[in-house]
């Protein structure tokens, strides 16, 4: 939980400066690079929260979130669109559910710390985006 707040604040801070003129037909939730990046961050946070042997690479996480911000900026999202996305509780729950489902698919069992640690170490050794956000 402690890391969730740090990364959530970092994402909010990273997206505050977005501006542009993307078509009204597009939505930030439809930008795969952004949503997949946020899912990876969510997975890393969950692993570090539930495994005492893992910790987040906070600076790397902030840098990664800024790269998502830059991508969204390059696509021309408006401040209003960003605010709506960041503040949307349903979207946050949807992305968290996807992150937890992916962790379960990788072998995480709710309430069993060793499974979080095993999956986290595997992600680190494989050099995945999730693993790069952990130490």
From TrEMBL:
Biological source species: Cognatiyoonia koreensis
Record keywords, A-Z: Signal
Please verify whether the record's keywords include Signal: yes
Name under which the protein is recorded: NADH dehydrogenase subunit E
Top-level taxon of origin: Bacteria
Q: Where is the signal peptide?
A: 1-19
